[in-house]
Specification:
The protein is α+β, with helices and mostly antiparallel strands. It contains 7 helices and 9 strands, in the order βαβαααααβββββββα. It has one domain: Phenylalanyl-tRNA Synthetase, Chain B, domain 3 (3-Layer(bba) Sandwich).
Length: 216
């Protein structure tokens, strides 16, 4: 063995459909492919989550929506027909969970890595089974009669999609066949950049998640 660390995975941009790019010029999608974690939870990740949980107490959680990145997600949700008071943005949902449960309960290694990336950057990361995805996912609008799993989607809904099919709603449910499972060997980590959120936040979310997974 050479003792050299493995190179970082390549960040791959995903295609954004022309009609979406015209309406939202700053909309982008990026992903990386990484090995699925095989080890146990890293105590250091649990400690980092505990520290971050302390930052989401009372007043901070209530005022979170006024911060630049969370505010950008609220605006974008409304632009694409989602009411953030009904379907909370990912970072606001995490803040509510912290208030209700008093902290973050330990999940799987992947759960912890996804949560860490969200709390540190405000940008949600989606994990897919790489074997179920044809290349780097991108963003497009649904056609008539498209489904995600058992759910029919209305035409014109924004979805994560590969070259063959819709993989899941943007910030919504993922097709069951694309979700990681016990047999998953490789993951495809996906992050979506929206107007008002700098590209560096999207990249940092992916690298944070990838780093946490490599510690397992």
């Amino acid at each position: 063995m050479s003792g050299e660390s493995a190179p970082d995975p390549e960040l791959e941009p995903g295609a954004v459909a022309d009609e979406l790019a015209a309406e939202f010029p700053d909309l982008r999608c990026a992903s990386i492919a990484v090995d699925a974690p095989q080890g146990r939870r890293d105590p250091g990740i649990a400690e980092r989550l505990a520290v971050l949980a302390d930052r989401f107490r009372g007043r901070r959680a209530v005022e979170l929506r006024r911060e630049p990145v969370p505010a950008a997600y609220r605006v974008f949700f409304r632009h694409v027909g989602l009411d953030p008071e009904v379907r909370r943005t990912p970072i606001e949902e995490a803040a509510i969970v912290r208030l209700v449960e008093g902290g973050y309960r330990g999940g799987t290694v992947l759960d912890d890595a996804l949560l860490l990336a969200l709390l540190e950057t405000g940008v949600p990361v989606t994990a897919l089974d790489a074997a179920a995805v044809a290349g780097a996912p991108g963003l497009r609008l649904t056609g008539r009669g498209e489904r995600v799993g058992a759910s029919a989607l209305p035409a014109g809904r924004i979805v994560l999609a590969d070259a063959q099919r819709a993989l899941g709603e943007l910030f919504g449910q993922i097709a069951p066949e694309a979700l990681p499972g016990r047999a998953t060997a490789r993951l495809r980590l996906v992050a979506v950049g929206i107007p008002g959120v700098p590209a560096i936040h999207v990249e940092e979310a992916l690298w944070t998640c990838q780093e946490a997974l490599t510690l397992a």
